[in-house]
Known about the structure:
GO terms for molecular function: 4 iron, 4 sulfur cluster binding; cyclase activity; iron ion binding; oxidoreductase activity; S-adenosyl-L-methionine binding. The chain is of the alpha/beta class and 368 residues long. The chain is built from 13 helices and nine strands.
Amino acid sequence: MTANPPIAMLAELTHRCPLSCPYCSNPVELARIDSELSTEEWVSVFQQAAALGVLQLHLSGGEPASRRDLTDLVKAARDAGLYTNLITSGIGLNERRLKELDAAGLDHVQLSLQGTDAEMADRIGGYKRGFERKMAVSEWISAIGFPLTLNFVMHRQNLHQLETAIQMAVDMGARRIEVATVQFHGWAMQNRNALMPSRDQAREASRIVAEARARLKGTLVIDYVPADYHANYPKPCMGGWASTGINVAPDGIVLPCHAAQTIPHLKFDNVRDLPLAEIWHNGSAFNAYRGTDWMPEPCQSCDRKEIDFGGCRCQAMALLGDPAATDPVCVKSPRHEVVAQLAEGFSSSGSDELSYRAQPPKLEPTTQ
Ligand code: SF4
Ligand code: FES
């Protein structure tokens, strides 16, 4: 099958990270450090991506600054003609390294924010003095003149800081803030009790975003991912499966989305074995839910099927055990009540205790 080329690639350079956010989007089974692609292998992936038609490269992790070759990777990506965006917590960057990244041609920085003060940010990120370091990094970013997006992941414990986060983005000179309510996959699934916002909080967040968008028009762009357990329609996850985005994991496994490995029957290919274009066009995992033919009812005859693409396959898997089902967030799903019950139950759990993300193992465990 020949598909349109992907627009964007997410390159998870490593699963190593100084932080241990309890909602990390990395898989629960992290890629081993000794399995990571080498510099040369990543450079080949970037060249193949550009040849395939990818325009934007999001360098992510874990923490991409944990890779010592980050500057070389940025330079290689720029040489291949890709627009480069660094998605970082800021920890592991200093002024010298940021200047080197600037010289290598880095186009954009996306800085994550776990909270708007040290107490919240350091507790959620599981890293002491992380907030202080992050604020220093934001000043170097601004002094160098990188276009900046602030990424604020919201949940029950920090949602009251949303207005402050938006103001911080303005004060930092960011062009954009991504206000994303935590998505419940991987590590976040283990923390639904502690992170699920209430329905009232979700409504309040939407109100704050609408007000700020009107007030800050022309100053700050606000991207908003609402709390989908409280929504009536699902998010158009990945803009449709294998439609516009492609992810490469630290060990070279190529994925249609960051959580795809939670779908047990899918088989994933590796850039160490096959060319990227072959995987994109003909990989069985990419073709499993591409387009609309796979859709069940009510999606198949729904006038929103080209708008939300039936929602999120990984969420249908996680909540219903069936990745080909209509995302139960949708009011038209015969199983919608599952989501409503979970949202109510988890948001009123009364427990704020967090289970933090682990670090990736270093060596293959022995079988003896
Ligand atoms: Fe989207 Fe399917 Fe719901 Fe229609 S029925 S709104 S396509 S999830
Ligand atoms: Fe996999 Fe939504 S996260 S399809």
